[in-house]
């Protein structure tokens, strides 16, 4: 059997189950059922049904089913060869007499409704997709052919090959590890793309608000991850997974080996700070951000600051996320866009990704009051982050666990 | 027009005639796209699935049994790709059902629907194309995926029960009962959608104080 079989599972309603109201149960009358059977057994060739009354009913059934084939309208439709379509749709000689089946005939001759430029575009893009697949296949075949060639081998050959391989490995290894890191970065980028879509869907369901379930306010701690969901900012982000807007695996960065990918039932938050892969805008009750605000930071790669602050270690406010070996971090903005910052400062508007080091740069790991304090600090003064600070306003980027 | 059959074209493609494949894609563009729009419920999604389908056709060309017909194979692969797509889309699938489904089936068992009493207007009946398209899509959206799939696959391919059973590897009895249910549910939904629309129009008119 070829691989195009359809699983015979009548209970599998697929994704429709949750989204659509199921159709009410209905049955055909025995006469209609017989007409449908006759129609299908005749491969939809009405002429092949000899019984006159059966054929009339079958024509009704065909007309009804033909509704599914009504043209999908698009603007400026340009008709293409109707006769060609009829010929390909109907077996030769099976066209039903038009006067007998006006509804069916009208439906079938309604013609295509796809604009010819659209048609060319889809055919071209399908072909180019296939071209790429062919190229990949050729490449593989070339490699296979090389592999297939087995020369006679002497010890000297083996030694020299081994030496070459050693040298090659020493050259290739850093390249490979760089590629691996790039792969991780891409995986994170894709994770955040998924999260961004989930956030949008969530916001759509909850009056344009990204998840804000923890409900802490000024003065209440928000970094008690895994202890109390009311005191944990990450419980906000976790709500996305808990309410099935996204899988927990999509909130796990490949660079974080400790990140869980499957949610335990009833779980409301990650169990510890170490399990968290992505940081989320600190979302106290008083300073709520609206999904759709282009300048609001909603989510980033994990903050390097919080983990150290909790452990009472010295923090570097200008360090990059540990997710990508300190090379930079992804940021999800309130308009759903995902970008890469090689320095943890975000700008506004057009300067969004290029404000690092300028007066407009807003450090994403810290609230503005602390940033201002840092500007004034000279020498070895100490500025504390206590885990109760909140963003100064909705446009103050400040992410937490 | 290319006189070669679909199967000949595909065989030629596998022998290296790339233009044959273009002809095939072109030949099936309208039918397959229309089928997919109805199956997955949107033009953009249908185009994505369309491309995936032909890519699959290309990659699993070797598994195609030359004794079989090309068209049902293509549509079956498209149906599978459509199903994958809907699964990927997961529970976020949003179906537009503008009004609750009234009557029938609620605790009173299955109701019979007489197709002679279902109104199937011809395209020129004054119902606007866009409106008609929306109604068809809405009626189809009320069907579960397997029912929608079998309704579309059988109609678009003009297959007999035995052929459907063979193409889909489903027992003949299941094909039959599933198609019966599909046609009945579609007819019921179609007449309800039509009624909702005309009721809505009447209501709007009376609300407007005409």
Query: What is the share of helical residues of chain A?
Result: 25-40%
Outline the biggest β-sheet of chain B: none
Major sheet of chain A: 5 strands, antiparallel
CATH superfamily of the largest domain in chain B: RNA polymerase sigma factor, region 2, helix turn helix motif
Secondary-structure element pattern of chain A, one letter each: HEHHHHHHHEEHEEEEHE
Q: How many β-strands of chain B, per DSSP? A: 1
Number of structurally distinct domains of chain A: 2
DSSP strand tally of chain A: 8
Helix and strand composition category of chain B: mainly alpha
How many whole angstroms does the radius of gyration of chain A measure? Answer: 31 Å
Q: Report, as a whole number of angstroms, the end-to-end distance of chain B.
A: 55 Å
Number of domains of chain B: 2
Number of helices of chain A: 10
CATH topology of the largest domain in chain B: Rna Polymerase Sigma Factor, Chain: A
Overall average pLDDT of chain A: 77
Strand-residue proportion of chain A: 5-15%
Strand content of chain B: under 5%
How many DSSP H or I helices of chain B? 8
**Uncertain runs of chain B:** 91-109
Low-confidence stretches of chain A: 1-24, 73-112
Helix amount of chain B = 55-70%
